[in-house]
Amino acid sequence: RVGNKGAMRAAPSRALVRGLPPGASSPRDVPVRSVRALAHPRAASVDDASTSSDAARSRLGDSSSSSGRKGSFTPARGSAPGRRPGSSAQTSSRALETASTAASTSAPSWKDEPAIGPLGIERAHLPRHVAVIMDGNARWASERGVAVATGHEAGVDTLRTIVRCCGAWDVAALTVYAFSHENWRRSRSEVEHLMSLLERTLVAELPSLLEEGVRVTVMGDMGMIDENLRAAIADAVDATRRNTKLRLNVALSYGARQDIVNASRLLATQAAAGLIDPEDITEDVLGEHLASRTLPAALREPDLLIRPGGERRVSNFLLWELAYTELYFADRMWPDFGEGDFREALAWYAGRQRRFGSRG
Q1: Which residue in 48, 137, 183, 336 is the catalytic one?
Q2: Whether residue 249 lies in the annotated active site
Q3: Which residues, at least 6 apart from 191, have a Cβ–Cβ distance to it below 8 Å?
Q4: Cα gap 241→243, rounded to integer Å
Q5: Are 227 and 252 in contact (CB under 8 A)?
Q6: Which residues contact 291 (CB under 8 A, 6 or more apart)?
Q7: Reduced to 3 states, what is the DSSP secondary structure of residue 321?
Q8: For the chain, which end, N or C, has fewer CB atoms within 10 Å of the first or last residue's CB respectively?
Q9: Residue 183 CA neighbour count, 13 Å, CB half
Q10: Is residue 135 among the annotated active site residues?
């Protein structure tokens, strides 16, 4: 089934990310509230639940770097400043203090948002892990004659709603495709705006993420991300590390083909060095080398993929992990995709029979 295309709704009143001060007409008018002093030598592309925070951080950013592409925006590649001394708990405390200060003037608590109603579907029939390709921001903006940046900012409001729904309806994990490996080919201005928007959103929403028990993880090639965004990512990952209600996994500078190649290359190198027998390379072993190891093993494969925006493809997203995932496509653009649309997708999923190749 394909999601029904609903009537076009008016542009939301909060088209821009929440918290623009009076007189600011775009995010470029707002100072980016980053947490530069807490930057780590390597920002987290993997948050492995089986390792300590420092051990996990020591191998972050191991993804191979990509060279600049003709006609594409090549991001800055300078190394981030060294991490200040202090425990993970102290870092988390400072991150929360910084984020709380920023949020006091930029983002109200989620408790000020309209309440999410009960779902009415038995928990046993719900997906544990939902993946979303957040598509249609630019077309949404074009239809309204506004800047593409405004479409991206409106998409932040939709993401906030879906995260809140997942928390209210006991969905264990939500993976969102925030920025693909191929998105680096977009114009410099759009890429810079998206990076700024991601940073500001992480900082502004951190108090609510903490308050609502959301744990943030990020997967992708962090070597292509500027140091300010890497710092904001590292702070969000550290500060929410002990949260257990929902795993919000953000795919950033991510491409599934590149991910599989990197994992294969690493295993081939280990085999050539005699560290592993090629016969011992199984699906599970390969999976442990993919970027989705940010999630516990039981949650790495999404039960349901949702793609708004009218396209019917997976666009180099979680190709390995989507082998048995139910695919739901909706015509509504991502900024217009709301609680009701998410309910429809989950109801559709609840009616599916998942046999995984058997006839049972």
Answers
A1: 183
A2: no
A3: 73, 75, 183, 184
A4: 6
A5: no
A6: 45, 46, 63, 219, 220, 251, 254, 259
A7: coil
A8: C
A9: 26
A10: yes
Burial per residue of 202-223, b for 16 or more beta-carbon CB atoms within 10 angstroms, e otherwise: bbbbbbbbbebebbbbbbbbbb
Task: Yes or no: say if 231 and 35 are a contact pair by the CB < 8 Å rule.
Answer: yes
State how far the Cα of 70 lies from the Cα of 243, in Å rounded to an integer.
42
- Which tokens is 184 given? 């680096």
- Rounded distance between C-alpha atoms, residue 212 and residue 160, angstroms: 12
pLDDT at 229 over 70: yes
pLDDT at 162: 98
The secondary structure element, H or E, covering residue 248 is strand 246-254
29 three-state secondary structure: helix
Cα–Cα nearest to 291, from 314, 271, 321: 321
Among residues 48, 135, 157, 341, the one annotated as catalytic is 135
- Cα(44)–Cα(249) distance, integer angstroms: 12
- DSSP H helix total and E strand total for the chain: 9, 7
- Joined tokens for residue 111: 């408790």
> What is the Cα–Cα distance from 154 to 69, expressed in whole angstroms?
29
pLDDT tens digits, one per residue of 9-40: 344 333 333 334 444 444 334 433 332 222 22
Residue 217, strand partner residues:
249
**How many Å apart are CA 100 and CA 303, to the nearest integer?**
34
Output the pTM of the full model.
Answer: 0.73
Query: Over the stretch 181-212, which tens digit does the pLDDT of each residue have?
Result: 999 999 999 999 999 999 999 999 999 999 99
As a whole number of angstroms, the distance between CA 194 and CA 185 comes to 13
Question: At 246, is the secondary structure helix, strand, or coil?
Answer: strand
In angstroms, how far apart are the furthest CA atoms of the chain? Answer: 64
**What's the rounded Cα separation, in Å, for the pair 304 and 129?**
7
Return the SS3 of 305.
strand
Task: Specify the amino acid at residue 97.
Answer: E
Alpha-carbon distance 64 to 220, whole Å? Answer: 10
Q: H/E element holding 254? A: strand 246-254
